């Protein structure tokens, strides 16, 4: 960080001055976490004394690139998020950071995040704060594939359970072939222009036959773009319900030295 993110009021919530950033990372942390029901947004849930958002910021800004990080948070959490950014980013970091308010739906928060990136950013990784232990290697794998292909890229894991189609009463109608199915994670990577214009297109279509898109790959696909996959990883597990806390605790224990390393 070239100076404190509070030093320059470029957005309503504060920003650092920016140089020639080419990589942008948007960490979305503005969800309400209703399925978890912790009483605080998931990004601010603490594991071993640290907010989930802190882990995501630390990993994103550990990438060996000069980049610009945008953290998208609920408006009333902006000051807390700025404090986290200041704590995590070392004074000599090549990363600059902006905190900006989110929207009602995830795709709106991403759109606001993209808008807060400096013009010099040409490639964007969008990451859920709710996946705090996605590794730097995963970020690099996605980024390399975006730059190699010029397409959108998402991390994907094979589905390991047998899948059934059921009706509203829970009665099974058929077994679904799982061979062509994958579960996708974040970070998801995109050429900036493709992502920004896809979000504009989807915003105009809102209220149409499709519901709200749940990830950015879907946004790009709806706009006619190609989305590729790279191998995902178990440690990029998402906090969705209370059961996931146990999974995240075990991932943290398995990667404790690295994940709990102080700034
Ligand atoms: N309006 C929203 C909704 C979601 N997110 C972020 O998108 C990620 C994944 O979303 P999800 O798991 O659906 O989070 P929540 O919306 O918080 O969860 P819930 O649906 O249970 O309320 C999270 O890091 C969340 O903070 C966001 O920035 N803005
Ligand atoms: C973006 C995401 O993490 C990809 O799996 C996911 O779509 C988040 O939203 P969800 O509604 O919990 O699937």
UniProtKB/TrEMBL annotation:
<feature type="site" description="Positions MEP for the nucleophilic attack">
    <location>
        <position position="178"/>
    </location>
</feature>
<dbReference type="InterPro" id="IPR029044">
    <property type="entry name" value="Nucleotide-diphossugar_trans"/>
</dbReference>
<dbReference type="Pfam" id="PF01128">
    <property type="entry name" value="IspD"/>
</dbReference>
<feature type="site" description="Positions MEP for the nucleophilic attack">
    <location>
        <position position="238"/>
    </location>
</feature>
<keyword id="KW-0808">Transferase</keyword>
<dbReference type="InterPro" id="IPR034683">
    <property type="entry name" value="IspD/TarI"/>
</dbReference>
<dbReference type="InterPro" id="IPR050088">
    <property type="entry name" value="IspD/TarI_cytidylyltransf_bact"/>
</dbReference>
<dbReference type="GO" id="GO:0050518">
    <property type="term" value="F:2-C-methyl-D-erythritol 4-phosphate cytidylyltransferase activity"/>
</dbReference>
<comment type="similarity">
    <text>Belongs to the IspD/TarI cytidylyltransferase family. IspD subfamily.</text>
</comment>
<feature type="site" description="Transition state stabilizer">
    <location>
        <position position="42"/>
    </location>
</feature>
<comment type="function">
    <text>Catalyzes the formation of 4-diphosphocytidyl-2-C-methyl-D-erythritol from CTP and 2-C-methyl-D-erythritol 4-phosphate (MEP).</text>
</comment>
<protein>
    <recommendedName>
        <fullName>2-C-methyl-D-erythritol 4-phosphate cytidylyltransferase</fullName>
        <ecNumber>2.7.7.60</ecNumber>
    </recommendedName>
</protein>
<keyword id="KW-0548">Nucleotidyltransferase</keyword>
<keyword id="KW-0414">Isoprene biosynthesis</keyword>
<dbReference type="GO" id="GO:0019288">
    <property type="term" value="P:isopentenyl diphosphate biosynthetic process, methylerythritol 4-phosphate pathway"/>
</dbReference>
<comment type="pathway">
    <text>Isoprenoid biosynthesis; isopentenyl diphosphate biosynthesis via DXP pathway; isopentenyl diphosphate from 1-deoxy-D-xylulose 5-phosphate: step 2/6.</text>
</comment>
<dbReference type="InterPro" id="IPR018294">
    <property type="entry name" value="ISPD_synthase_CS"/>
</dbReference>
<dbReference type="InterPro" id="IPR001228">
    <property type="entry name" value="IspD"/>
</dbReference>
<feature type="site" description="Transition state stabilizer">
    <location>
        <position position="35"/>
    </location>
</feature>
């Amino acid at each position: 960080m070239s100076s404190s993110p509070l030093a320059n009021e470029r957005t309503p919530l504060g920003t650092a001055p920016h140089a020639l950033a080419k990589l942008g990372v948007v960490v979305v942390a503005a969800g309400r976490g209703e399925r978890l029901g912790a009483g605080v947004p998931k990004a601010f849930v603490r594991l071993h004394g640290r907010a989930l958002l802190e882990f995501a910021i630390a990993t994103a800004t550990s990438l060996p690139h000069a980049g610009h990080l945008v953290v998208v948070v609920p408006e009333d959490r902006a000051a807390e998020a700025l404090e986290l950014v200041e704590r995590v980013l070392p004074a000599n970091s090549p990363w600059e950071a902006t905190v900006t308010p989110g929207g009602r739906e995830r795709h709106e928060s991403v759109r606001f995040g993209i808008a807060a990136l400096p013009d010099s950013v040409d490639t964007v990784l969008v990451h859920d704060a709710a996946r705090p232990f996605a590794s730097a290697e995963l970020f690099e794998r996605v980024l390399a594939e975006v730059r190699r292909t010029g397409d959108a890229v998402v991390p994907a894991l094979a589905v390991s359970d047998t899948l059934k189609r059921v009706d509203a009463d829970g009665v099974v109608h058929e077994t679904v072939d799982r061979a062509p199915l994958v579960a996708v994670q974040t970070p998801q990577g995109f050429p900036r222009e493709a992502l920004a214009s896809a979000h504009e297109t989807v915003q105009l279509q809102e209220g149409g036959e499709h519901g709200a898109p749940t990830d950015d790959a879907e946004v790009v696909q709806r706009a006619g773009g190609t989305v590729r996959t790279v191998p995902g990883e178990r440690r990029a597990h998402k906090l969705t319900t209370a059961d996931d806390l146990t999974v995240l605790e075990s991932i943290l224990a398995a990667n404790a030295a690295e994940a709990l390393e102080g700034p």
